[in-house]
């Protein structure tokens, strides 16, 4: 949708970073380039964040640029509104997905609405970073997939990267955006490594095809993308060619890109870790059904988390979309040879 | 209290310069007239709702008068008179309550944040604006308004705590008018006073007679000066009373006695200051008439502006959700455009009907 600030690094040697390192680099580069960028939240200072995503930023840029706040998420979000109203570009960290709920009123009633309410006079260029979703053996309240709440709220952009290169590029674009962005960082991918020198990266609002395929399309985002890719790999061994689409951005949502992909295969499975009922995967399935009906050989299937509170670590494998569940759903797509 | 309810100076301290008091009195006369006019416009069906600050004019005017041009003020829905006293156009001030849009004025023009209805949620914004200014070394002070009920909200606590931790130059002015709609102060707090709440945050708290403009100017000016000097946030609790119901939709007789209201009528902030200024020879009939005429002018401009029908533009619904509309909003705008075009066609006579 827009040009990004991703390095076109043809001249730079290939470099491999983890997602956490890529996010750290995006914050560091943004802090270095723009004196109005501020990083704030709980433990983001001396500790460098509980996931070390802000490691070294306070040492490099000082207490005024990257700083710890009182332990109060509504206060952090509300404080950021004021900072953004007065010339700053705050990047706030909600330490864990479920700890962001105290900030919900500030996010929904102010951050999402300020531009609209003031007819564009007050814009809030702020980013809400949320370490997000499960798969890391976290205890209760540390593994929520909360994207539906944000995606349902007009006025917010919602981004969920699945690779280190995307994490870097999309976060840079989010920080530069005049609109508030909820930036969902899949916790289980923090340590996953990837190459950073892929050249220009498509901007927020553009879905990409991560794996070409001709028989069916898997639509995933954030933590579900690697699982979908793994399922496609297994399916290929069985002679079935699965395409994998990575949404990257939930809002804006790339209807055109997703439809083009689905129309090329005629079958679709949406994969998402969040509980399925009334979730974002339902929105994707509905939109594909409405727009691609005549190209579809089978109803769109969803593979999602169960409609239960996130399980304790010993049972979380039952909640997460697995390769087998994805392949079972693919098998159900009314194949003529079945 | 610097002036007693009859307008006699107390021994509590020196009064502000008399020209500040005359200016404040004139502001209160405008505020009172503006409140009356807005309430009348509700009865005439021109405003959807109006939460009047009648009785609280001293707080409203003092809040605006103690600030410098570069300072900010964060109002609630009941602080329209303060917004007008700050210099915002009265018609633009009432846009939210008229229902044309959610906010009518440019917050950057006079450094007035939009009127906020979810209680206390604007207070952390005030702390953030103040902190941003402080980071840049600007001398900005932010005055944040709320009522007694709002002090029970978590955002009140978090805003005072953030402001204190970052030594943000914010003056929190709590207009304690004793009721949150119908719920009395005793159900909001067991604290000895709302000013006491500052202790828990390391914020100096002060109580003031909220119907005594002289006392308010003194206390708020001091708080603003201390905040500007780098002493961090200040909390001021002003004891006042709303003379009207919560809004036109409220029935205050269900929770307040006539005797209680009468006791507060006797403490009217305008009557008190007028008595003092006349006794001092700072206000005569001619000056009072000029002030009343100015207030009448504000009322007339308010009335005329609100009585003007503004046709809302449906496309505005899509224009400012994001800096650029999402593809989904582009589609929805096209749908609404199409509906409106069809409605317009249906409203016009068909060629056949027109020919008859």
Automatic annotation (TrEMBL), chain A:
Write the Enzyme Commission number(s) for this entry.
1.2.4.4
- Could you tell me which SMART domains the record lists for this protein? Transket_pyr
- Annotated InterPro entries: THDP-binding, Transketo_C/PFOR_II, Transketolase-like_Pyr-bd, Transketolase_C
Q: Which Pfam families does this entry report, sorted A to Z?
A: Transket_pyr, Transketolase_C
Could you tell me the Gene Ontology terms of the biological process aspect for this record? branched-chain amino acid catabolic process; response to nutrient
Give the UniProt keywords, A-Z: Oxidoreductase, Pyruvate
* Presence of keyword Membrane: no
Concerning CDD domains, the annotation shows: TPP_PYR_E1-PDHc-beta_like
Span of domain Transketolase-like pyrimidine-binding: 17-192
The highest taxon in the source lineage is: Bacteria
- Cofactor(s) recorded in Swiss-Prot or TrEMBL: thiamine diphosphate
Q: Which GO terms describe its molecular function?
A: branched-chain 2-oxo acid dehydrogenase activity; magnesium ion binding
UniProt key word Oxidoreductase: yes
Class of the enzyme per the UniProt entry, highest EC level: oxidoreductase
Q: What is this protein called?
A: 3-methyl-2-oxobutanoate dehydrogenase (2-methylpropanoyl-transferring)
Taxonomy-wise, where does this protein's organism fall, top ranks first?
Bacteria, Bacillati, Actinomycetota, Actinomycetes, Micrococcales
UniProtKB/TrEMBL annotation, chain B:
Q: Name one GO biological process term.
A: branched-chain amino acid catabolic process
Which Pfam families does the UniProt record give? Answer: E1_dh
Using the record's annotation, list all stretches that form the Dehydrogenase E1 component domain.
28-295
Q: What's the superkingdom here?
A: Bacteria
Q: Which UniProt keywords apply?
A: Oxidoreductase, Pyruvate, Thiamine pyrophosphate
Q: Where are the transmembrane segments?
A: none
Q: Name one GO molecular function term.
A: oxidoreductase activity, acting on the aldehyde or oxo group of donors, disulfide as acceptor
Q: Which cofactor does it need?
A: thiamine diphosphate
SUPFAM superfamilies reported for this sequence: Thiamin diphosphate-binding fold (THDP-binding)
Matching InterPro entries, A to Z? Answer: Alpha-ketoacid_DH_E1_comp (IPR050771), DH_E1 (IPR001017), PdhA/BkdA (IPR017596), THDP-binding (IPR029061)
- Protein name (record): Pyruvate dehydrogenase E1 component alpha subunit
């Amino acid at each position: 949708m827009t040009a990004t600030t991703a390095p076109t690094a043809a001249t730079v040697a290939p470099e491999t970073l983890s997602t956490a390192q890529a996010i750290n680099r995006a914050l560091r580069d943004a802090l270095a380039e723009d004196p109005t960028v501020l990083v704030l939240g709980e433990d983001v200072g001396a500790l460098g964040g509980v996931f070390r995503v802000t490691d070294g930023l306070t040492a490099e840029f000082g207490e005024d640029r990257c700083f710890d706040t009182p332990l109060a998420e509504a206060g952090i979000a509300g404080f950021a509104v004021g900072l953004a109203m007065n010339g700053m570009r705050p990047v706030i960290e909600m330490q864990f997905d479920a700890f962001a709920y105290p900030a919900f009123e500030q996010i929904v009633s102010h951050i999402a609405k300020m531009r609209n309410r003031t007819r564009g006079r007050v814009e809030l260029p702020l980013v809400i970073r949320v370490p997000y979703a499960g798969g890391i053996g976290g205890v209760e309240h540390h593994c929520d997939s909360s994207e539906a709440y944000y995606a349902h709220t007009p006025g917010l952009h919602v981004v969920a990267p699945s690779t280190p290169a995307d994490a870097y590029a999309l976060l840079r674009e989010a920080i530069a955006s005049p609109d508030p962005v909820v930036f969902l960082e899949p916790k289980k991918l923090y340590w996953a490594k990837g190459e950073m020198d892929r050249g220009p990266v498509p901007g927020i609002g553009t879905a990409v095809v991560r794996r070409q395929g001709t028989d069916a399309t898997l639509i995933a985002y954030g933590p579900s993308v690697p699982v979908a890719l793994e399922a496609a790999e297994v399916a290929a061994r069985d002679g079935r060619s699965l395409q994998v689409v990575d949404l990257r951005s939930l809002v804006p949502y790339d209807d055109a890109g997703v439809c083009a992909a689905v129309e090329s295969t005629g079958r679709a499975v949406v994969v998402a870790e969040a509980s399925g009922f009334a979730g974002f995967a339902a929105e994707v399935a509905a939109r594909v059904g409405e727009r691609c009906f005549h190209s579809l050989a089978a109803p769109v299937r969803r593979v999602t988390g169960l409609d239960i509170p996130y399980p304790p670590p010993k049972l979380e494998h039952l909640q997460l979309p697995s390769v087998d569940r994805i392949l079972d759903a693919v098998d159900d797509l009314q194949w003529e040879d079945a | 209290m610097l002036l007693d309810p009859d307008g006699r100076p107390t021994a509590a301290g020196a009064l502000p310069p008399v020209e500040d008091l005359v200016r404040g009195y004139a502001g209160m006369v405008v505020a009172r007239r503006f409140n009356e006019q807005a309430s009348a416009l509700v009865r005439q069906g021109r405003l959807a709702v109006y939460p009047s600050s009648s009785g609280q004019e001293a707080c409203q005017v003092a809040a605006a008068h103690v600030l410098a041009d570069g300072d900010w003020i964060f109002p609630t829905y009941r602080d329209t008179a303060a917004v007008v006293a700050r210099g915002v156009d009265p018609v633009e001030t009432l846009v939210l309550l008229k229902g044309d849009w959610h906010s009518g004025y440019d917050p950057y023009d006079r450094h007035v944040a939009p009127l906020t209805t979810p209680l206390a949620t604007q207070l952390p914004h005030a702390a953030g604006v103040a902190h941003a200014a402080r980071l840049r070394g600007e001398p900005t002070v932010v005055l944040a308004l709320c009522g007694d009920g709002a002090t029970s909200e978590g955002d009140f606590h978090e805003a005072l705590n953030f402001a204190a931790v970052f030594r943000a130059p914010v003056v929190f002015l709590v207009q304690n008018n004793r009721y949150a709609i119908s719920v009395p102060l005793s159900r909001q707090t067991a604290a000895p006073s709302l000013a006491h709440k500052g202790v828990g945050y390391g914020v100096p708290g002060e109580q003031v007679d909220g119907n005594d403009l002289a006392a308010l100017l003194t206390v708020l000016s001091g708080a603003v000066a201390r905040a500007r000097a780098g002493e961090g946030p200040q909390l001021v609790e002003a004891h006042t009373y709303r003379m009207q119901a919560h809004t036109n939709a409220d029935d205050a007789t269900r929770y307040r006695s006539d005797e209680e209201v009468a006791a507060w009528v006797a403490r009217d902030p305008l009557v008190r200051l007028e008595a003092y200024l006349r006794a001092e020879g700072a206000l005569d009939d001619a000056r009072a008439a000029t002030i009343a005429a100015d207030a009448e002018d504000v009322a007339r401009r308010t009335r005329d502006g609100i009585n003007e029908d503004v046709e809302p533009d449906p496309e505005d619904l899509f224009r400012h959700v994001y800096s650029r509309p999402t593809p989904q909003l582009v589609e929805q705008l096209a749908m609404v455009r199409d509906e409106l075009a069809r409605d317009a066609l249906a409203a016009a006579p068909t060629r056949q009907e027109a020919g008859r």
